[in-house]
Structures are given as structure tokens and as C-alpha cells.
Amino acid sequence: MVEQAGLTLKRLQMVLQRRGLCTKREWKVKQVTKSNLSQTLESLKPQISQSDFIAVSLQRTGSVSAPWHRVFPFDTPQTAYSKARFAADKFQLFQFAVCPFSVRPSKVVAYPYNFHLFPRDELNIGMPSYSFLCQTSYLTSMAREGISYLSRVQESAANAAIGNPIPSNNVKTSSSTPSVADTVFMGRIKSRVKHWKNACGDSSARTEDVLSKFMRKLILGSEQYGSRPSINLDVSSEHQVQLVLEVLVEFDDLVALLIPSKGGGTQAVRVILTSSEEDKDLLKRELQDLEEEQRKKVCGFREVIDLISASQKPIVSHNSLNDFAFIHSKFLAPLPPNIDEFMCSLRMVFPYVIDVNHLMKEIGPLKKVTNLSAAASRIKRRFFVPIDMEIPHEALNEDKIHGQNVLRISHLLANLCSILKITPEMIQSDGGHLASALEGYANIFYPHEDQTDGDLRVWTDDTRKVSSEDLVFIWGLSGKMSAGSLKQMLQGSHSVFSGEFDVRMVDRSCAIVVFWQSGLSQAFLESISSNGISGRLRKMVSEGLRAAGYETYEKACKLGFRDADLADSMDKALEEPDHCSEDDSETKPSSGPSQIYWSRDSIINLDEL
């Protein structure tokens, strides 16, 4: 009887754990290192193809080192992107969890993998240095077991540096009449190729002595590509490459390879002679296999990124701006200067990205939740969502629990859809297109999702919209000062503070003043610069208090100043001259001042720490 009760209790615990209703949730996640990468890829390909979504979760080698480095509610999209861009340039990834999953009635079918990474320079092409804020023992393990990777841009540079021949399949025939110089060049190439082919087929050459064979090869420029004869044709431009390829079209038994130069471009066209049509097909397959093998060696983990991109499946993440800034930087190309270019570039590779944060904003009890564990706990207390987590494959390294967040994200999306009455039938992708029920939540990389003509939606009871022109940053405060005492000091010191205004500390060195009446911020800044103030505030200005508008804060973020105190970065930003070049296009306002998302609940109140 006791044994039967024990078994029943155990089964109940298992069901609750699958449904995410237990506090202890350690789902099995397959750990992937360079030793089992090839085997994992074979399993991952069909799982990605058959899934509805792909969840991703990243672990970085470091995080923000000061409170103001985090994204604030008053950050514009560009400022938030500048912070994400700085972190992506400074730190690296050491774990990347991927989970193809499908949502079914009452369950999520998931295939979680956690890839261990390490950015080693296996090809000696020169890799940038990064900050690693982790234990030395773990860093040693990363270096030994981690999977290397290159971005697409780095791969192109690596191929040029290695100099591997590239099969040529594209011949661009010109419709215009060739010039005299082109005609002479093509005639010389055609004559040389014919002479070389005839020499290769000359049976009398086989009985020549070693010296004669050597001289013949030297004169003809003939070489061997494996067991097949070949010849290199030097070129000085990409135009000449196309002319050579046009000539070679006339020969059915030749295969062309492009020899890249270290400085970029093509230095020669290697021509290989085949013995038959079957031999030509065999050579092409060999070249394709060699190219694929080299690509895998160069790409490393980026092959997983390429699989995800090729599938065109919706990707689900938590804090998508930070995650995809890293993904773009490490696996695609260097990050562009502004957020609009970033979003356009990213969408060409990943057409649909869904951030669960924006789905949570649609549900009252979850509006203020930003943490995955807190979201699961809140759902457990406020809703009944009986959704199981089914993980069909056997997980390796079961003693390790790395990569749990990717399953939490998968499970959370299913829970949110259930609460929002979005059924599994409504969210299944159709023909590579995102289901219409989720279109409104896709590709939102701003800190807050609703933005029309610069406005951001107020989603908490104590939230109002404010223009960036109505914010003033104050620093150089003497001693420890609270927001309340600073506000009390400002009241009565100038006429601009006779109306409604608010004060909050951004960090211990800097405060932000919000003027709810338009135009007062500029009057305040002008009065400080002209000493048009009185009382204690005037004394503080004489002792070093400084003030600046929102554009100075944006400038500090854009230029990458990341001092521990915001005040030091603001000082540097004021000292920097303004640049108005095309390279600084991100600093130019596109449509006037931004509407800032202001929330009293989301600002750090240092008085309460």
C-alpha cells in the first residue's frame, strides 16, 4: 500500500515537472562539443525541418559591469542598440542552446541542444581579442572541448588567405561586341589551351626521357591535379577571368577552378583535363565534397546557424536585441552603426524573430515580468495551463544541466499562446510564412513593442510618454544624494521647477530630471550655463554640478564610453567634438525627438538598495 502510494506520488511529480509546475525543473539537454558535433548535426537537420519554431538562448563570457550599462525604459531604440552593440563587440559566446520544437495540444515536443563554443583561431587569420569573465578552470575546458566558428565575413577572408581553389560554375557571357584587346586575349588563351591539350594527348611524349618530360612541362606550364593534367592561366582582373571562362565553354572535357589571391580577387584560372564525361562528373563531385569538407572545417558551429537560417523557421528568444546583436556580430558580419540597418541585415537571414517578452506584455499579471523563472512562477500561481514538455531524444552528459533556458523559452511560448487563446493550429507555420496569429509579435527589437510615429505604448498604470527633449541629466553631485533630496533641493531654485517634474537616480553618480511640460528642460539648461539660478543649486554648480540634454547621453552610448559611473562617461561625451559625417549617420535624428518610455517602477531607486 505504501509502495503504491509512493509510485503514485512519483508519477504525479513527473507530470508536474513536465508541465513546469514544480520548482525544481532540470530537463535533459544534450551537451554538444567538437567531439560529437558531426553526429549532432545529422540529428538536428531533420528536427529543424519538422519543427514549428526554433528557440535559442545564449551564454556570454561577460555582462554589463555597471547599472547604467543596462537598457533603461528611457533608452531610445538607437541607444538600446548602442548598448547591445558594445556588449557584442566586447564579449564572446561560450554556450549556444538551440531547441527545435513544436506546439501540440497539451504538450511541447522539443529537441534541446547546448553547444559549447570557443573562438580559437585555427586558420591563423587573426581573431580579435575579447573579454572573458569566467573561472579559469571553465576557460580551460572551453579551450579543450569548445567548438570553433567564424562569421560569414571571416569565412570569406579565410578562404582568400588559405587560397583554396574555387569551382567556377557561373559564366557571364557579354552581349556586346568584344574589344580588340579582348579578342586578342581570348585568341591567345584558346591557342594555348589547344596546344596544351594536344601535347597531353601526344602518345610519343610517353616514351620521352625524364629531362625531356620536365622541359615539356616547363614550356607548356602543365601540372598535375591528382592524376589529371592541368594548367594555370594567369589573369590580372575579374574581366579577364570571365573571358577565360568564355573560351573554356568551347571545350567539353575541361573543368575550371579559380585560384584566389591573398589580397582578394582571382590570380589564375586552373584548367583540368578529364578523360570522359563520366570522369568529368566524378571530378565535379570530388570538388564539391572537398569544398564541403573545407567549409565545415572553417565554419564550425556556424553550420548550425546556417541550418537555422536555411529553414526560415520562426526563432523564439528572450531579450532578442541582445541575443541577435551577438548572433549578427559572431556569425554574420560586424554590426552596422544603427538599428535600422541592423534589422534589415538580420531579416535577410532570419525572417521571423519572436521575443517572448512582447507576448508577456499582452497579459496583465505578466506585464512587469522580465525574468524567465519569474514568468514561470507567475503563470503557475495565476493560471492553469496543463502543458507537458516532451523531449524524445536521449540526452548526453545528464549530469550537466547547461542550456535549460532554451527549454524554458519553448515552454513559456506554449503557455503564453494558451493564455492568449492562440491554439496550436493557429501558430503552425505554413509554407515558410509565419502564422498570422503571431505576426504582430515578430521582428520587434525595440525595448518596447508598440511604436507609432515615435510613440511607445504605456503598459503599466504608472507610465507616461515623454519626449527625449524633456529629459535632463544631472551629475557632479556632492556626496551621497537621494532622488528625494535632490528633488527637494531643485524645487524653488528656478521657475522651471514650479510645474510638475520628476527625479530619479540613474546610478550613484547621475540623476535624470523629467519635465512633464514641454520646453522647460531647455530653459533649465540655458539658465545653468548663464548662472541664472539661485539658492543651493547655484552653490552646487560652482562646486562642479553639470547638466546636459538627452543627446549627450546618446552620444556617450554611441561612442562606447563605458565607465563605471555614468557621470564620467557624460564628461567625456561633452568633451568630444560633434561629427557630422556619413559615418555618424546614427547620431542624426530621423524624425525629430523621440518619445521616451518612462516608468517609475523600472528606474533603479538607489534609496531602496
Q: Report Rg.
A: 31 Å
The helix content is 40-55%
Q: Total helix count?
A: 21
Unreliable stretches covering 5 or more consecutive residues:
20-24, 129-136, 450-461, 580-591, 600-609
Mean pLDDT: 78
Q: What is the first-to-last residue Cα distance? A: 53 Å
Proportion of residues in β-strands: 15-25%
User: What gross morphology would you assign?
Assistant: globular
Number of DSSP E strands: 21
Describe the structure.
This protein has 609 residues and is of the alpha+beta class. It is built from 21 helices and 21 strands. The longest helix is centred in the middle third of the chain and has 23 residues, at 277-299. Strands 1, 2, 3, 4, 5, 11, 12 and 13 form an eight-stranded mixed sheet that branches. Strands 6-9-10-8-7 form a five-stranded antiparallel sheet, with helices on both faces. The chain has a four-stranded antiparallel sheet with strand order 18-19-17-20, sandwiched between helices. Mean pLDDT is 78; it is low at 20-24, 129-136, 450-461, 580-591 and 600-609. 41% of the residues lie in helices and 17% in strands.
Can you summarize this structure?
Helices cover 41% and strands 17% of the residues.
